[in-house]
Amino acid sequence: MPAKPNGKGSEKVRRVIVVGGGLAGLMTVIKLCEAGVPVDLFSLVPVKRSHSVCAQGGINASVNTKGEGDSPAVHLEETVYGGDFLANQPPVKGMADAAPGIVFMLDRMGVPFNRTAEGLLDFRRFGGTLFHRTAFAGATTGQQLLYALDEQVRRYETLDVEDSKGSVIRGEKMVRKFELWDFLSIVRDDDGVARGIVAQDLKSMEIEAFSGEAVCLATGGCGIVFGRSTNSVINTGTAAAAVYRQGACYANGEFIQVHPTAIPGADKLRLISESARGEGGRVWVPRDPRDARKGREIPEKDREYFLEEKYPGYGNLVPRDIAARELFKKCFHEKRGVYDPKTKKNENEVYLDLTHMPEEMLRKKLAGILEIYEKFVGEDPYTNPMRVFPAVHYSMGGLWVDFERSHSGSLVIGSPRNQATNIEGLYACGECDYQYHGANRLGANSLLSCIYGGMAAGPAIATYVKNMRKASTGDTSKSVFEAARKREEDHYKSILDMEGDENPYVLHQELAETMLRDCTIERDNGVLDKVIEKIDDIELRARKCGVTDQATHANQGAPFIRHLFNMVVIARVIAQGARNRDESRGAHFKPAFEKRDDKNWLRTTLAMHEAGEGNQNNSIKYVRGIDYSIHGAPMHASDAVDVSLVTPRVRKYETAGAASETAKKSDDHEDEKSENRAEA
Amino acid sequence: MAAERKAQLKVYRGDKEGGELKDYEVETYPGMVVLDAIHDIQAKQEPSLAVRWNCKAGRCGSCSAEINGKPKLMCMTRMTSFPENEPITVTPMKSFPIIKDLVTDVSSNFRMAKKIPAFRPRPKEADGTWRMQQEDIDRIQEFRKCIECFLCQDTCHVIRDHGKAEDFAGPRFLIALAGLDMHPLDTLDRRELVKDEFKVGYCNITRCCTEVCPEHINITDNGIIPMKERVADDYFDPLRWVIRKFTGGPEKKEKAHLPVLQEKTGSK
Amino acid sequence: MASKSVHLPVLQSGLGGTLRRDAWWVGPAITFVLLSAFIVYSTWRAFENANFLYGPYLSPLYSPLVDTSWAKGWPIPVSGAMIILIGPGSFRFTCYYYRKAYYRAFAMDPPACAVGEPRGHSYKGERGLLIFQNLHRFTLYVAIGFLFFLWHDAIKGLVGWQDGVHLNVGTLVLTMNAFLLSGYTLSCHAFRHLVGGNVNSYSTATAGMLRYKIWQKVSKLNMNHMAWAWTSLFGVGLTDFYIRCVCTGAIHDMRFF
Asked: B114 and B226, same structural domain?
């Protein structure tokens, strides 16, 4: 058993708290340990069960093994372009520059990446680019990465902490892991600085406060707000919502990525990775909407490859927002989905076809994905075109975090501003921050942004902590922790005492259905007003839930109600943000405002929470800038997007190479490229 | 069309004090898996039913249980794979201490994982690359498919019937060790540990681990047996011993040691 | 609805304790019957010490011919088969397939997956005498040696006649026997390890790619090791039985040419 925490954290060692055991969290832990900072790692599930394991396709890095003229500069440009210019560009540049180094590092950690005939790393194609830029390990890249990082963290779990003189502190290891703990809130001292967290042990249901010199959230996305999604059930966004309620700013919440290809299912949509298209998969519908033949029996001339026809430049590998919209249009507006002769209806499905590819190659590179399809649909995807439909997949928005720009336009690694939220001492990275993807994320950039986020957060926190120790502002009185613990315990007890007649699972279902129907691919202001009304309604009803599970250990009903409260909060941020933004940009699409509006909306949505008193609902205050401080030094950031590296231009994927103009230019700048590589 | 039909379930309810099988009835629909049925019960009939699950796509390894006595992932087991009109029994994994209902404490596995000396690659080549051929890592990729659902540990009789969870690495960690031993660029020799600490000799090749693996990893043939043969190379083969005495043997990797652990294993 | 509660020792242990509803006992039962039958038959044949030689035919249980005249006057009769069977017998005893078969069917350790074992017995794995399970490769060397004799016997069954070349049913039976035993022996896990399984980096090892290719071939054979194990076992039994029948005159050895 780990030493029992009592609000002081560990007895002899000051630690930083990392919440979340996915890729971003583990990378942060590793970077902190490398800097000599001991860590307490909290995770809602055992770390290897984190949602990172579900990432299938790969991780982007412009290593340019195939000599296509790819470079970090092109990677930067395509990421920014794919994100419709909403991302601050310095962090993206930092990420693109570091990417090759990250992949090499993972390779060194033992990730079994697929290889080329020369024994070098193999790369596949992904959406929004014409380059082979995605390193992969079969169809389970996320899992392989997570397991490799876990192995590193496990090493630190067995490594002793040393004091400043280099002697071992007995009984203290660099990393202590708290698995199956639910994060409830941060502990803020009298100055509002984050000094620790309150969390609940989901086995014993005990609530404890832990002190930490800084706190880093790496708690992932919020797909479960939409119910049916490709996300794992833990991705409720509850941790991000909790700190948002405590004063952290939430940015760009309205940008929710819908993945174009998933297996339709009753309550969970299982992802068919973009790598299926990267390896040659083609999307089509029958030309005749009443075509009752089986997919494989429909000859070539009767198929409409609508993505390839409309976007000859990028074809099936247009970015996800565009692909998802086209699929949606085919099924909902044109009613051209696959015809089911049994129901005599055009189902909301299109074909994703791999049958023209050699089976042996597919088995080598995509077996994991195709197995899942076969299992759940009962059809052999090697001989039958798969039937797929879009599903909620990723949240580009998240906790607002800062960055410090270097002279070259990249990040100053080690600056305490990187990945810092507007609450001093609270950091965020991974999907729960908003930094790297703008209005739409490119495939295989998420694993990269998670790892890079951790690589930026770790040194930032280490610097923050070291400066703090110098200023010796460390000690926080015990009563602050006790008060925070008491507050959460009272809250939990009040949930257990709820005696209303609302069923929290049904409420979640109602919320999810509304959000999924009206707040995803196409948005309309009139409908969004109704969505917000619905959220108001659910927020009130959620206070009247009944809890029948009074179990004192492994209780699942009561924590679910807590998560539901937080999901409603996030839903409001998403819906209200969408309502406000009268333009179309990336994943946010309003038919009534079809164009991107850089004049008014090339800016980050910054949402601040305002709690409703008594029977009033919560509301949101939108701000145009953020002021916060680090160790007394005032910091300011406005909502203007830093577009200093790639000038915004209209996003078009009809012609090949539209997203990568740098590639053409940089052919003469070979030196510059290798310099970038060295930096990484 | 699949008409709506009802399915009977018997689900274990209880904790370490004891428990019982309780009967439930749920409506089924096409594509339903056992985990859906459990959720249905949890949402509509028994909110206090404890079950762990997460990704629902057979990737996270959380929802392991025994369905009609067989270790399986609930999220990957279709309701239609059982005969109609017969109740489906769902019980927690037997080999691990129960926490509540279908939730078990699998932490013995995490303690075992901590004991494995981590991958330590050799330095990069002169040209800065780090080459491996696909055929060299095919084997390792198979083992790396493991999602740590621990169904193999659950079914392994050394752990299940003889209670050696803290003493024997079990199939999951034997393939992890095999993957490290087979890695073309690793520089540590863990074979002595495999023999003496991870106790590969406990395995008597009854192959249940391979039968239950949801990732279809050929645990026994590709992992454990090659590992046993490799240990035999170094520690049981008298002929090789003699050859080593005379020739000095092939280049040796550095011997690995157990990491020093803070917690005593088996304290819980 | 949740109404009826059944009180029973839910998570059963003890011999046969399981919630499995399929006929898990069928597999081990069949194994038990077949293996027992073969053991009984071969033991009986080993004691019979007759009816194993007919023309150029030699029963696989007695091949190669061993002179046992030195054991004359011993309290129990010693036959060539008794000595010979030690070789293939130990190969099969330490075989990675048969271990599953007999541990499940005979030792019931465990009888089937997720089925309880007899209570109260201790289990130590490969300890004591069982440490010899680790020397499977040496029994493999012996088994490979036997293959030469058996192929020799098969060829002799073709050309070993006094009046030139014959193709009889017996010739085919002996050839089939040698073929099946070759399949079984060369699909052995220890063989797979020795030909290339022990290599970590095929791309850099001496003759690495050759070994990789051989290893892949053996791996393919190895996937069906169980099938080879059973068919070759029947092969041996039937071959011996055929020769015995020919010896006793129960069957006429038909000649094709």
From this structure: yes
